[in-house]
From TrEMBL:
Protein name: Reticulon-4 receptor-like 2
UniProt KW tRNA processing keyword: no
Bilayer topology: Lipid-anchor
UniProt record similarity statement: Belongs to the Nogo receptor family.
Keywords: Cell membrane, Cell projection, Glycoprotein, Leucine-rich repeat, Lipoprotein, Membrane, Receptor, Repeat, Signal, Transmembrane, Transmembrane helix
A biological process term (GO) from this entry: positive regulation of synapse assembly
Amino acid sequence: MLSSLPPVYFYPVSLCYLICFSIILPFSFCSAPSLFTCPTLCTCYPSPPTASCQSHNLSRVPFPLPSSAQRLFLQNNHISEIGPGLFSPLTSVLWLFSNHISILHPGAFNGLENLEELDLGNNPKFPILQSDTFEGLKSLRSLHLYHCHINRLPSGLFRGLYSLRYLYLQNNRLTVLPDGLFRDLFNLTQLFLYGNLLQSLPAESFFGLSNLDRLLLHSNQLAVVSPGAFRGLKSLTMLYLFNNSLPTLPGDCLQPLTSLQFLRLNENPWHCDCSCRSLWRWFHSTPGVSSSPVTCNSPPPLKGRDLRFLVERDLRFCTSNISPRNGNLSDLAFPHKPSSFYIQGDPGAVLEAGEWENTIEEGGGSGQSASILTEKQYLYISFLLVLLSWEVNRYI
Ligand SMILES: *[C@@H]1O[C@H](CO)[C@@H](O)[C@H](O)[C@H]1NC(C)=O
Ligand SMILES: *[C@@H]1O[C@H](CO)[C@@H](O)[C@H](O)[C@H]1NC(C)=O
Ligand SMILES: *[C@@H]1O[C@H](CO)[C@@H](O)[C@H](O)[C@H]1NC(C)=O
Ligand SMILES: *[C@@H]1O[C@H](CO)[C@@H](O)[C@H](O)[C@H]1NC(C)=O
């Protein structure tokens, strides 16, 4: 008969005491009031033990919350501050999204060893994260930090989060990823970084993510990707880089992605010259990957053509210093010299760049260093390319 009643600890105090004293339950069960009180404005459920306090314009976390509650729903309120000791160590799901959190006291999430899901998304005034904010959350599987206007992450932030599978960092203001940020996340399968302000990806950016399956980097401002950027991502099947500022991408950076199936590179200002040759070669050596179009934006004779369907000869000139969008690369947070990236890697390409510079000097007699082209030289090359494509057409 008792089993048909909802568990006693969610009853009002007086009723609980009545039941405790008049029937059979041990006294100790009722001794801590927080075991069985449900805060006003919250609704509590027994199975699994849940306190649901969402969408009540709450300005603070109700206290005390039922200490037996494993799921705490506090989203869509006006909570601005999270102090230590508010949540029970039994908590496994904690939803705090769409609040106004601007103060996180040290130790706010201390001792939550059973926490599996923490959703802090859509808190636009989120405070600066400290290295130890998530320390000890060894059961955490899913961490939501999207749309929090975060502009920097301390490099130790995700230390020890060995269980993490899903990490949502999209729609923030991140400009760089600190070295070793993901070092301990070898169980991570999905990493959401789209809609940030990333400009470059240095070598080993994703070091440690050997089980990563999806990496979403679209809608950033990426202009430079190191040949070693994706090293170690041997399980990656999906890579999104669309809607960035990439004039080129070193084919070498895609080489380690032996599981890759889906690649999206559209909506980038591809500059189809010798700097794209290693990418072109990667496409031709990896026909199994499903890819979006890779539409050339420049040089003018190749504008609108798909890089993948060019012939290698189309990419023999090295003109990259002319006009990649966001051409000023001097302010990129990139450890290697960005300018060398454009004519690096492929010895053939460098040689041709040299040959071509000589041609210019003989022909135009320009005393200027050929690394930055004058408009006249640029017109000359365009003219040559048009001539070349006309020649090629004649033979087809
Ligand atoms: C929350 O506040 C808004 C206005 O600020 C009001 O319209 C809404 O009814 C309030 N919701 C609750 C549950 O009190
Ligand atoms: C994480 O992955 C390792 C192997 O890489 C495995 O031994 C471990 O059990 C995993 N941990 C969790 C919590 O899934
Ligand atoms: C492309 O990225 C910009 C931000 O860099 C964003 O504002 C825009 O909505 C994105 N466009 C698409 C089609 O995703
Ligand atoms: C390139 O950017 C740097 C730093 O942001 C700036 O000092 C320099 O003037 C810029 N150069 C050009 C040509 O815009």
